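Dear support,

We are seeing what looks like truncated structure output for some complexes. This example has two components. We would appreciate it if you could run it in full and send us the complete token output so we can diff it against ours.
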Amino acid sequence: QVQLVQPGPEVKKPGASVKVSCKASGYTFNNYGVSWVRQAPGQGLEWMGWINAYNGNTIYAQKFQGRLTTTTDTSMLTVYMELRNLRSDDTAVYYCARGGPVVIPSYAMDVWGQGTTVTVSS
Amino acid sequence: QSALTQPRSVSGSPGQSVTISCTGTSSDVGGYNYVSWYQQYPGKAPKLMIYDVTKRPSGVPDRFSGSKSGNTASLTISGLQSEDEADYYCCSYAGSYAWVFGGGTKLTVL
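Here is the complete output from our reference environment:
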């Protein structure tokens, strides 16, 4: 079945970086984009950025520009999200979600990973 | 990009209907017919319930419906059931491959 699989929790110190993977299966990887969405404890969903899995083009929310990088490894059917210079308020669950107009004209996030909890603490 | 505005909470009794609003601007909700709605249970990943303003993915009950007027989109849940109690988020395409979410609405089934 169509799914996105993310790794288990991460604990990082302030100032460090975290790289979260998102492995796709069950669909043609290059036909869709992938968004990264985070949710701080007790808070709502926040869109962070998007990558076109076909050509690797990226768009980042202004808030994360300069600290966020998303990449793909098409041979591994995996998308990566790296957030640098972590702060305590980056503590959140980070989700990857399939969607975005690539080969398929999709503008909703129809498949979600299970989320990766990233805790930033000294 | 500012978050879309949703009521913090709504409630209804079993069998009733509730509507959750989602207000944006002409740059997002009003500018595109690409509003989607997500249901989220505590500790779980969001689930797509409505896309392209009014469309339901396969498997989503027809009790869930979406609409839009101007810069405001709405999610209506009719025939409320206890399992509908969850958080609901709207999301709109904002152009240039960017999206924006609403702040979320907690639905309580009384």
